[in-house]
Amino acid sequence: MARLMNNSLFGLLFMLVLVSHGFCEIFDVSVEEYVKMKEFLASVNKTPVKTITTKNGDVFDCVDIYKQPSLDHPLLRDHVVQLEPPSYPPMKKLRRPSSYITMMTENEGEEDACPLGTVPMTRVHMEDLLKFGSVENYKSKYGRSGYNPLGQTDKHQYAVKRTLGGPFYGTQVTMNVWNPVIDTSQHQVFSLAQLWICNQQGSDIDTVEVGWHVYPAFHRGSTTTRLFVFFTGNSYGPGSCYNSMCGFVQVDNKVTPGMTLPKVSNYGGTQENITISAYKDDTSGDWWLGYEDSNGYRAVGYWPKKLFKYMDKESNRIDWGGETASYVGSGTTYAPMGSGHFPSEGYKKAAYMSNMKIKDSSKNFVDAPSNLIPQTPTPNCYKLGDNSADVATIGPHFYFGGPGGTC
């Protein structure tokens, strides 16, 4: 139910009482913000041709590819959708199987996909927005924490390797996939592994970010490991967002940001990987996303170059590694990163990034330099291993992560 409250200190508020799974939650939001939430839901939840409910309870609406939410972005009103990239990373297009399907339905063992001409969009619920307090909090990378990575360091931690200078036009990397545990009672937000493609000019930054994360608040309490994308064209300000809500143009009908990855690694056992390509197409100038696992390669979608202030031209920084975030910052207990074990434990026990490549000024994908710059501000919680050849079968790689704790 919902009722109005008039409070001289806070103004006009909605008090919303939601009952879910036997629990009662109360949210106070301004009338203005509540109206914004309703408008946002109307803009992102397009009329579906088909709806898929996964075994995790996720709802994906199959939406006409030409009516997806990102095309409502003010910078994309006249954008012509590219159905596939003009160019592919080396050897990738040939490996695309027509039968590849990833979405698991609510019935164990059944698989489904959106019809051709439609693309899967995660359905957003009012409850999702209320838990974040505002639409912009929901879309921002760090949620309700209010964190901005250009101005604070106490609400996130990271362990990455970096290359600077450029110009760079993309990267490709194989990511080891795990399922770190997030303790929301300790104000933990997420744990992730990703690539960052950036162009930073002083205090301004554009980024394209792709990887996997465990982020319960963003995914209706789910603790599964999921594919995600994020971008900002204005230094993490309003308009930045996750997945396909406001800028990323989805073109694949099966693989989509927000989906649960079907397999994760086991400590001391089977290792699961995904390979991510994010690169600037030489013809269109758009930034394309490619996804590959044991089933093959898919061109998932792209960020049009119009979204960016600086990356419409090139990147000057690429990072690979992990990150965690907290709502409260100093004194909190941070989540595990990667496998939750330090790099010194090695293969099958520590998370790794392997076969890092960059698209350089020659517009070719070449091996990343061996002298990558390590960034580990809290080594008591998270560490990096040297670029290593201890396991030849996975190619050049480095380990990252750790148990977290009080950093």
TrEMBL record:
Q: Where is the signal peptide?
A: 1-24
Query: Where is each Neprosin PEP catalytic domain found?
Result: 150-407
The molecule here is called Neprosin PEP catalytic domain-containing protein
Q: Which UniProt keywords apply?
A: Signal
List the taxonomic lineage. Answer: Eukaryota, Viridiplantae, Streptophyta, Embryophyta, Tracheophyta
For the keyword tRNA-binding, the answer is no
Pfam families on file: Neprosin, Neprosin_AP
- Organism field: Aristolochia fimbriata
Q: Which domain of life is it from?
A: Eukaryota
